[in-house]
Amino acid sequence: MASINAISKYASKKPYGAKDFRISLFALIVSHIQLLIGIILYFISPYFEAFSSVGMGDVMKNSTLRLYLIEHPFTMIVSIVLITVGYSKHKKKLSSTPKFKLLAIFYTIALLVLLSRVPWSAWLNLN
After folding, report:
1. DSSP letter string over 79-117?
2. pLDDT value at position 118?
3. What is the rounded distance in angstroms from the CA atom of residue 45 to the CA atom of residue 72?
4. In the predicted structure, residue 76 carries a pLDDT above the cut 60
5. Nearest Cα residue to 109 out of 70, 79, 73
6. 67 FRET partner, CA 20 to 30 A, in 4, 39, 96, 116?
7. Mind spelling out the 3-state secondary structure of 67-85?
8. Whole-angstrom Cα distance, residue 70 to residue 85?
């Protein structure tokens, strides 16, 4: 929602308002809460035991374990960093167009990175 809002307002040259601030802040807060929940789930996941049972070499050879234990957590952290950087940088801009441009760039890249490593087969039950 924050990406779409920023892109549409940037393209239409609309002024940056309180609603836009709340949308971008909400995306930031929700993404950080999701990160905290994800960290907890990562360490209590049955997949986490694979590090000690099969070792890092075998984790990297197994595409499912690599996705759940390495790729997914790393890309989610990268996404949260992009959202945080975009939010921080947009606050320093004084006019609407640069604010929306920064939000559109950082939030959209974060969304694409995030969507690239979601384990879709587990969510869509394609196993």
Report:
1. HHHHHHHHHHHHHH--SHHHHHHHHHHHHHHHHHHHHHT
2. 83
3. 13
4. yes
5. 79
6. 4
7. HHHHHHHHHHHHHHHHHHH
8. 23
